[in-house]
Amino acid sequence: MNSKPVLFAVCCLVSAVLGRLPAPAIFLPDTLDVGVSKMIAPIGSIDSGVSVTPACSVYNYGDQTASSYKIRLRIGAFRDSATVDGHLPGAARLVEFTSWTAGARGAVVVSCSTELAGDGNPANDKKAGSVIVGVKDVGVTHLSIPTPGDTCPKDTVVVPKATWRNFGTRTATSFEAWSILFDSTGAPVYAHRVTVASLASGGSIQISAFPPCTLRTSGFWTFRCSTYMAGDMVPANDTMSCRFLVMGDVGVFEGRESAPRGQLPAATIVRGVLLLREAISEKREARNELLDAMGRRVLDLESGANIVRGLAPGLYFVREARTQAVRKVIIQQ
Predict the structure, then answer these.
(1) How far apart are the C-alpha atoms of 270 and 311, rounded to whole Å?
(2) Among 55-64, 209-218, 275-284, the range of highest mean pLDDT
């Protein structure tokens, strides 16, 4: 700002007081001054994945019209700008920017600033703050009944049980916890839900309030639990499944040194080689299988020696193709 006119005006006033000159009219130069008066959006907190229109309010604090100037927006790494034209003195303007979508959780810095050539007061050009990005995320963490690798006699009555956790940053309300059972054919034979009214951030809940289910057919069943919550941002943890065995009339053969001809051998501990006796199936084209604890086929078995040392130690099942007879085996190093 040019100080000479102000100095001249002061001198004139002093002279007038002293009686040397008549008091003159005083003319001060016009002032250019615009600034950001308020951040409007985004502010406070917002869920990840939600889109908002960023906005701020700018004010002309000067006494002359600001013909044209830019406003810069920053939200974390996001950048945008807008132009204001013909901004009258003493007037506020609403400025909106390109839509922004909240991403990773946490605090994000937000700022707006004006860029007016010749602005006489840069102190009010910028406003800054932050917005807290939250995440809605509930998922399944553990299956209790049935568990992976369970063996149940046919006609067993089970009451499904599993655990859900709130991985999000705020309390989860009114989400659905589902329990579904598929029989050995893959058909869904049981599907029930429980609505959870509230679960605090970081909290877990074990749900066993499902109705009972009777396992009426033999074979490998699938137990699946899932979550439905509007706005859930992490679908990868919404579902968990396991397979378990329902035994029919054939039964499970284990813990015996030998087995009758036509049945699987009864060895339960295997180290390196799984030995099957001579053809256990009358149909040569039928394949006997080695299944993992989830019921997935990992190996076709032949009569005689089968090399299994490359498999991870643990629980497996031998299933005879013709009769579907099943026996547990434990592979060790």
Answers:
(1) 11
(2) 55-64
* Average pLDDT rounded to a whole number, residues 129-152: 89
Q: What is the dihedral of CA 62, 64, 69, 72, to 10 degrees?
A: 10
| Residue-wise pLDDT tens digits, 46-57 | 988 889 999 999
All residues at 6 or more sequence positions from 25 whose CB lies less than 8 Å from its CB, including other chains: none
Residues with Cβ within 8 Å of 317's Cβ and at least 6 positions away in sequence, in order, are 245, 290, 291, 292, 293, 295, 326, 327, 328, 329
- Using a 10 angstrom Cβ sphere, with 0-12 exposed, 13-18 middle and 19 or more buried, the burial of residue 73 is buried
pLDDT tens, position by position, 92-124: 999 999 999 998 888 999 999 999 999 999 999
3-class DSSP string for the chain: CCCHHHHHHHHHHHHHHHCCCCCCCCCCCCCCCEEEEEEEECCEEEECCCEECCEEEEEECCCCCEEEEEEEEEECCEEEEEEEEEECCCCEEEEECCCEECCCCEEEEEEEEEECCCCCCHHHCEEEEEEEEECCCEEEEEEEECCCCCEEECCCEECCEEEEEECCCCCEEEEEEEEEEECCCCCEEEEEEEEEEEECCCCEEEECCCCCEECCCCEEEEEEEEEECCCCCCHHHCEEEEEEEEECCCCECCCCCCCCCCCCCCCCEEECEEEECCCCCCCCCCCEEEEECCCCEEEEECCEEEECCCCCCEEEEEECCCCCCEEEEEEEC
